[in-house]
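User: Fold this, then the next.

Assistant: Folding the first:
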Amino acid sequence: MHLSSDTGAATVVRNRRSSGAVLDLPLDDMGIVMDVDTMEDLANAEALLRARSQPNEREANGNY
């Protein structure tokens, strides 16, 4: 299977969805829908990853 451009994965998912092989999950995660096609996109993805790896205020205070 060869995927190209923005239609690659979308075509696969659309075809699998029509056969009932896709499970949609409601997620609140920017990284799920983030494309990394350019150096700027990569920098944005890296910034998101860095932000996630920082403990939030509650965790920083030892409250898990």
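Now the next one, as you asked:
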Amino acid sequence: MIYLLFAVLLFAGGYFTLRCFLIKHALKEACRELQEIQKDLSQNQILHLATPDQDLEHLLCATNRMLEDLRRERQNYEKREKQFQHQIEQISHDLRTPLTVILGYLKFLKQADGSDAAEILEIIERKTYAMEHLVSQFYDFSRLSSHDCQITLQQVDAGRILREALLDHYQILERSQMVLEHTLPTHPVMALGDPWALERIFANLFQNAGRYGTGFLKISLEEQPGNICIQFTNGAESLRPEDVPHLFERFYMQDFARTKSGTGLGLAIAKSLAESMKGSLTASCIPDASGVSFPAFCDEKTSDKLTLTFTLTLMTI
């Protein structure tokens, strides 16, 4: 009996000693693998358990999930760094362009006679205002990104603000030779919003239509239960359907648009402001004239082009 008990104890001791040795070996292997993984986190490597053990498996699974999170965060960081670098380059280019023009004309102004001076000063003034607009866009974007922009929600007359914005930007549309049609009510249209934010949204939408729209601009305001819906629809001859999902991305500009003044921030700012007022701003395109009521005086060529619609939805309660 004593020999049997001694044999059982000896077997148990040997088993636990071997088990302990195997687990220790598995931990050493896992540690070695972890050190190899740390050298290059971009590789899709995971830890393996050489010796089956339920508790150690849970530990290694948790470690592998942490490694996956680290890889994902690293990829996001590298993506943000590339985007940031691109944004810095874009900002530098946008600021340098009007500055170069201004400096060039200032040098020319020193040598110009009285007949040319007035025209040169007008060009310098126009480029200075363009630069002021660029800096204002960057400033607004910076405030929104850092959440320093205070939005105060209150009942505002969105219809009145829209009508005033239309009058303020009518010359932009006129210079672009756009046919304008609007169905805006004259009575107060109350919505939940911030007056300054609404002004900026409408200003950015009008400026976007004036710069990149073609042919016509149709503006409508519809009152619905619980919200109001404001739509800007314009011709978009150079727009491609695949561009639409990217229109609200920061600094996104189509190739043809880079020759025009702009930052690629206007729509991103407008969308951010709309969402800060618990509303939404979306974009959609129609490949032909179906479903769009064109002004009767638009020519046939205009009605055959791609149309782009921005829809602003605001709450009324």
